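Observation: inputs received (chain + pyridoxal-5'-phosphate).
Thought: call the complex predictor directly.
Action: predict_structure
Action Input:
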Amino acid sequence: MELYSTNDPSSRVSFQEAVFTALPKDNGLYLPVSVEPLPQEFWRKLPESNLRQISIDVTEHLLAGEIPMADLARIVATAIDFPAPLVRLARVEGAPQNYVLELTHGPSAAFKDFGARFMSGVMGYFLKQRGERLIILVATSGDTGGAVAAGFHGSDNIDVVILYPKGRVSNIQEAQLTTLSNNVTALRVDGSFDDCQRLVKQAFLDGDLRARAHISSANSINIARLIPQSFYYIDAYRQWLADGNTAPPVFSVPSGNFGNLTAGVLAEAMGLPVARFVAATNANDTVVGYANTGEYTPKTSVATLSNAMDVGSPSNYVRLSTLLGSTWNGFRERVYAASFTDEETEAEMRLGFRQNPPYVFDPHTAVGSLALHRYQRQERATGGIVLGTAHAAKFLDDVERILGTEVGLPPQLQGLLDKPQTYEDIGVDYAALKRHILEVHAARRG
Ligand SMILES: *Cc1c(COP(=O)(O)O)cnc(C)c1O
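Observation:
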């Protein structure tokens, strides 16, 4: 896979280079020079396949020549070791049969597990080839840190240092960051998520630190996080066919930075039949504004119930629009966009819970469900799939308040709150962060 920067169409880098640099120096985003459709044979055999096999086939299709096939298959089989079931939703009066694709069965109970685990496998492989070690710095407001912590836990050549804002992540999220030990350490910052990000940025600008320790980010725009998110769109289609559907599905994607939706467009470029993509957002509606007016105006983000989607300037937007041909019409043809308030989100969660059978939506997935229904009322009443991006238990307090009932923890989160938590308080002190990074570096070399 050769990649180029969206700011310089003539540039070329290898997959390995794109994985370790994450962002091109010209501030564009890496995209594959070309994405070929998967062979006929793949689509013919799809009904007998499964998520793991699909993941291996797609990775080989995209990354042949970058990593030997046997190593690729091993990396993928290790990363994608949990299912993504397509679950029927109760049929709502006047609407077609809809489904949720549950991307919540991985270790952190959110879809970001796919990207983090794949990226961990790929980076670990390249580092081993090079005889190098790496420290990954992550600032998190919640979900990303949990997925990265779990995804890189146990890696023998990568350490993870996580910065999170004290008192501003949920109990479960904090436990996900602080109970892993070994190669994952957590630093509690007495400030906001922006303070965490600022400290991480300062580390990357610190020439002295960079001369002494090899540090990198697990940025959400890394191409290695995008690729594995295409796997489950294709596996969703396999399950969609197995349930008796024949027409292509609509995919409704709860969106913040638009990585997940971009991965769907990548899957479509590989030959996946898709009726239309629905971009579902909360009050952070920059992309909805573009779809409606043709004007793209980034905003500062506002806080909502679906906080993993509180993004006013989506970092994958350039990738998405480039893949869709960069015209307003091209965009609208493939993407229907809608935004919803927290009140609407809460109402949708209660509605889902009253259905027979009930479905417990987390706030993000509820926004996806709202958008799918609006699309079906306004555009075409064709059946669709909502991407279930997080398990409701990750937002326990909100979900229990809204539904007025207790929500059970999924198996991978059970017992988590009882485990001892280890973290270091660093105030908002860069010197403390630097000291910690150098300690991790020294400990691993000794
Ligand atoms: C990160 C996240 C999103 C947004 O995904 P993008 O790829 O940034 O659009 C949606 N829901 C949940 C639960 C998330 O953690």
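Thought: report the result.
Final Answer: Residues 110, 112, 143, 254-260, 308-309, 364, 389-390 surround pyridoxal-5'-phosphate (CB under 6 Å). Residues 16 and 126 are 7 Å apart (CA to CA).
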